[in-house]
Design goal:
Rossmann fold; 26% strand; ten-stranded mixed sheet; globular; alpha/beta; two-stranded parallel sheet; single chain
Length: 300
C-alpha cells in the first residue's frame, strides 16, 4: 500500500524510482480504511535526505501510511530552505491537540551538549510528554533515543573517547520479541555518534528491555516492556552513502576522523561502500508497523 505524500515533496521522485508506492492525499481520502498516521520529528540537518530514508522504510509495508513532518519552533534549521519547512512541515503547537498512531524522533547533531544545553530541549520535553498521552507507539533514533531514555527513565548518556563510526555486527537479545521477528542471530547496522548509553543502565530499569547489542558498538536497540517505546542508538535507516558523506564532511571541516569501520571494502575510502544492513532495516520497520496495526483500529 502507498505512503501518502504530496507529489511535490523532493523524496517523491526518489521513492517512485525505487518502486515505493506513493499516493496523493486527495486520492487517499477515497479509501475505505484510514491510513496509519505517523508524526516524524526530523531533527537532522540533512532534512530532505532524512525524509527519504524514513519514508522508504515506512512506505515498504502493506499498510497505507500518512506521515506528518514536524520541526521545532524554538530552533530553525540552518541547512534547509525556509520554503521547504513552510511547505512540508508543521510545528508541534499546531498538532498538540491531535492523537497519532506513532511518532518517530530522529537523531540530531547535538549529542556532545548536555541535554539541558540544547536550544529546543524544553520543547522536546513537551513533545515527549505529549507522546506519552496522545501517541500509541514511539520510535526514537540515535540522539533522539538518548534524549527519550533520559527524559522518561533517567538513563544517562556518556561521552566516548572516539566517535563510534562504522557498520557493526549485533546480536539479537530476545529472538521471540515481535520487533525482531525474522531477524538473523547476527545483523549489521551503522552507528555515527560521539556518546553512548550503556546496556547495563537500560537493563537495570524494570520497564526496559535490551533487544540488541554489539561487542564493539554497545547497545543498539531497547524497548519498553509494553513494546510501545523503541530506542535505536544507531542509524539503520541510513542509505548506502550516508556514512561516506559524513566522513567527507568531517574531513572537509578538518575534524579528526577515521574512515567508518567495516564499510568501505578493505577500509579503503576510495572504493564504493558496501551496504550490509538494508534487509534488516526494512524488516525492523515492517515489524514495528505490524505491531502498531495489531493494536489500533484503522477503520475509516
Amino acid at each position: 500500500m502507498p505512503v501518502i505524500i504530496p507529489a511535490s515533496l523532493p523524496a517523491a521522485a526518489t521513492l517512485a524510482a525505487e518502486h515505493i508506492a506513493i499516493i496523493s492525499p486527495e486520492n487517499a481520502r477515497r479509501q475505505e480504511l484510514r491510513p496509519l498516521q505517523i508524526a516524524i520529528l526530523n531533527l537532522m540537518p540533512t532534512k530532505e535526505a532524512t525524509e527519504t530514508q524514513f519514508l522508504r522504510l515506512i512506505g515498504s509495508t502493506p499498510i497505507q501510511v500518512e506521515p506528518l513532518f514536524l520541526t521545532t519552533r524554538s530552533y530553525t534549521a540552518k541547512n534547509t530552505p525556509v520554503s521547504h519547512l513552510e511547505t512540508f512541515y508543521s510545528h508541534f503547537d499546531e498538532v498538540r491537540e491531535r492523537h497519532f498512531d506513532a511518532l518517530i524522533i530522529t537523531g540530531a547533531p547535538v549529542e556532545q551538549l548536555s541535554f539541558e544545553e540544547v536550544l529546543y530541549w524544553r520543547e522536546l520535553r513537551d513533545i515527549l510528554d505529549w507522546a506519552a498521552a496522545r501517541v500509541f507507539a514511539s520510535l526514537f533514533v540515535c540522539w533522539g533515543a538518548q534524549a527519550a531514555l533520559y527524559h522518561y527513565y533517567g538513563v544517562p548518556k556518556l561521552p566516548l573517547e572516539k566517535k563510534m563510526f562504522g557498520v557493526f555486527p549485533h546480536t539479537v537479545s530476545d529472538p521471540n520479541h515481535p520487533l525482531l521477528a525474522g531477524f538473523d542471530d547476527t545483523y549489521y547496522a551503522p552507528h555515527s555518534r560521539h556518546t553512548t548509553v550503556l546496556a547495563e543502565h537500560v537493563a537495570a530499569h524494570p520497564d526496559l528491555q535490551v533487544l540488541g547489542e554489539s561487542p564493539s558498538a554497545g547497545l543498539f536497540m531497547a524497548a519498553s516492556r509494553d513494546h510501545r517505546r523503541v530506542f535505536i542508538t544507531g542509524h539503520i535507516e541510513y542509505d548506502r552513502h550516508t556514512l561516506a558523506d559524513e566522513y567527507r564532511r568531517d574531513l572537509a571541516k578538518g575534524l579528526p576522523i577515521d574512515p567508518p569501520v567495516n564499510y568501505f571494502p578493505g577500509d579503503n575510502p576510495t572504493l564504493p561502500p558496501r551496504q550490509q544492513w538494508k534487509a534488516h532495516s526494512y524488516l525492523l520497520y515492517q515489524n514495528w508497523i505490524d505491531f502498531i496495526c495489531r493494536h489500533v483500529s484503522l477503520t475509516a
